[in-house]
Write a structure and sequence with these properties.
Blueprint: H1 9-30, E1 34-41, E2 44-52, E3 69-70, H2 75-89, H3 98-101, H4 112-117, H5 126-129, H6 141-150, H7 166-175, H8 179-188, E4 212-215, E5 221-224, H9 233-242, E6 246-247, H10 249-264, H11 272-280, H12 287-290, E7 294-295, E8 307-309, E9 314-318, H13 328-331, E10 344-353, E11 356-363, E12 368-374, E13 376-377, H14 382-394, H15 403-427, E14 443-446, E15 453-457, H16 461-466, E16 470-475, E17 478-487, E18 490-492, H17 497-502, E19 515-520, E20 527-532, E21 542-548
Parallel strand pairs: 4-13
Antiparallel strand pairs: 1-2, 1-12, 3-6, 4-5, 7-8, 8-9, 9-10, 10-11, 11-12, 14-15, 14-21, 15-16, 16-17, 17-18, 18-19, 19-20, 20-21
Helix pairs in contact: 1-14, 1-15, 2-7, 2-8, 6-7, 7-9, 14-15
Length: 558
């Protein structure tokens, strides 16, 4: 394929410099505190932009290309790269059963490829992962396996894409019992990624590490501080494989250059010497990472996938609409990127966790990449718009999209739609109180996804004054918030925008997501369970059995 990027580097740099003003507009309209962006072309960083501040003790210190940002879900691309290495080094196969490597896994049909491509057909626990320290999975491997074993099938075979980050915790253990050490030795050290860390629990006043923020109303932000606990290696391995890495735009440029180099040399290794060379490479076979594993839906009329999930990445051919895993696609019809351009392969991933928003895209046929890291979770995916703007500029898009306008509209729409959800819930409230004393709802409710649980108690005095007929609910380590009575045995935990953000609760535009329905026994004498429709793929909701009337029941027994 001919090179799609025909402009000389000097002209590209000039165009990117002109796009800087649009990046500033997106930053301001979405509330991003600090970001670091880079554009890679032909084995070098062609252009950089560092905007905003890190926060922390030195609040006005600007970010730079070595500032360390959380990677969130971008960590999963590194996990996939380690799996691909083991195909050459240990004889691993994407068709291997996961249970052959981890006997405690109950699903005897799920393969390594199924976990990589999110095609197990199991319900997605990602909404619960987002409740734990901003998306980090901070439980031991045994807990991860126990949680995976508890997931129920929602689709048979492999016809349906169901995003499930928990599978990557298992993949890290398949790679090596000490995954973080393996990753350091076999990926980070060879690529000289000296600013990449395998834990976001580092102190923010240490070195060039940014704090994390989330956007509130009226251009305000709240600071998000993950726990500074010291976890053992087993816990850290699971976190790293799912979303616990952090890095800088300079280091991520080295990573992307390595992937593009692997694309350029891809092809069969014809002899034993070539095989030996492959085994020593960081990316021995990039096709293992970029070849589609599962269609993400919206297939073409001939049945071919318009967009697919590969191993730790998504892939499609431009012109196409990107942003599938972000919030923007829920807020508006996504624009077509690359209209009028020759077809070109794009491989990308994006992350939206509390206190971070990141976007990385590769155009391997052009030996190009776009990297945008930020320290802020915005109402929309502000970084997604910036990443697409940079791709558009790189390709010299003949029909450019107005990304500052799209970013502004989507940010405003996010809040308006949330307010509409609150209004719909308020309209469902009926006069009168609950049909039983509030004390009958209190207790500990077991989650299908161990070791998560719900604790329902009487509210603190300040909430009793503010909300009549309410309870208090705690989601594991998340601070409690009020449950307000709506009708019969149904309560709502809907919160104003700022309170929801500060409580680290996932954004959702389904009114049912904000309801908790208590189920009494058949004779109506007592409450035996709680139903929460927290997963859109399971519209009937998940049942949380009450396992204790005491709210002090320890979570490790739940």
């Amino acid at each position: 394929m001919a090179n799609i990027i025909t402009k000389p580097p000097e002209a590209i740099i000039q165009d990117l410099d002109e796009a800087h003003a649009d990046i500033l507009k997106i930053k301001e309209s979405t509330g991003i505190v600090g970001l670091s962006a880079a554009v890679v072309l032909k084995e070098r960083v062609l252009w950089r932009a560092n905007i905003g501040r890190m926060g922390g003790v030195k609040r006005e210190v600007p970010v730079d290309s070595d500032t360390v940002f959380p990677l969130g879900a971008l960590s999963q691309g590194f996990t996939a790269a380690c799996v691909a290495q083991q195909v050459y080094r240990r004889g691993l196969s994407f068709d291997d059963k996961v249970s052959a490597h981890l006997p405690a896994v109950a699903d005897k049909h799920a393969t390594i490829g199924d976990l990589l491509g999110h095609r197990t057909g199991l319900q997605a626990p990602d909404h619960l992962l987002h409740l734990d320290d901003g998306g980090l999975f901070n439980d031991r491997l045994a807990d991860a396996i126990r949680a995976f074993n508890s997931l129920k099938p929602l689709a048979s075979g492999r016809p349906r894409f169901l995003h499930n980050s928990l599978g990557y915790a298992l993949l890290g253990a398949v790679v090596d019992p000490s995954y973080h050490n393996y990753l350091q030795k076999n990926v980070l050290d060879p690529l000289q990624m000296t600013n990449t860390r395998m834990s976001t629990y580092a102190r923010y006043d240490h070195g060039n590490t940014t704090r994390r923020f989330s956007a509130l109303d009226h251009s305000r932000v709240c600071t998000y501080d993950p726990s500074e606990f010291s976890f053992n290696s087993d816990v850290e391995d699971a976190s790293v494989a799912v979303g616990g890495m952090s890095s800088s735009s300079n280091d991520m440029a080295k990573y992307c250059i390595g992937l593009n180099e692997a694309w350029r040399r891809r092809g069969p290794a014809g002899n034993a010497r070539a095989q030996k060379i492959r085994r020593a490479q960081v990316f021995p076979d990039v096709d293992l990472l970029f070849d589609p594993l599962q269609s993400m839906g919206d297939d073409a009329p001939d049945g071919t996938a318009k967009k697919s999930h590969a191993a730790g990445w998504m892939t499609c051919t431009l012109p196409a609409a990107l942003g599938d895993l972000g919030i923007n696609a829920q807020l508006m019809e996504m624009p077509i990127l690359g209209s009028g351009c020759a077809p070109v392969t794009v491989v990308w991933n994006q992350s939206r966790y509390h206190g971070t928003n990141a976007f990385v895209a590769l155009l391997p046929e052009c030996e190009a990449a776009v990297i945008v890291l930020s320290n802020t979770m915005t109402a929309n995916d502000g970084v997604d718009w910036i990443g697409q703007l940079l791709i558009q500029t790189l390709l010299d898009h003949p029909y450019p999209n107005n990304y500052p306008l799209l970013a502004s509209v989507s940010a405003e729409t996010a809040r308006l739609r949330y307010d509409e959800v609150g209004a719909r819930i308020a309209l469902s409230k009926r006069p009168g109180g609950p049909p039983r004393p509030l004390s009958q709802y209190c207790g500990c409710y077991k989650c299908y996804f161990p070791p998560y649980f719900m604790r329902v108690t009487r509210p603190r005095m300040r909430d009793r004054v503010r909300f009549k007929k309410c309870l208090r609910i705690d989601l594991r380590e998340i601070d409690g918030f009020p449950l307000q009575h709506l009708y019969e045995d149904t309560f709502t935990w809907f919160l104003p925008w700022d309170q929801r953000v500060k409580a680290r609760l996932k954004l959702d535009y389904r009114p049912d997501y904000y309801l908790m329905r208590f189920q009494p026994r058949e004779d109506g004498s007592d409450i035996e369970s709680l139903v929460w429709i927290n997963d859109p793929a399971k519209p009937e909701g998940h049942v949380f059995p009450r396992i204790s009337r005491s709210a002090s029941y320890p979570y490790w027994r739940c």
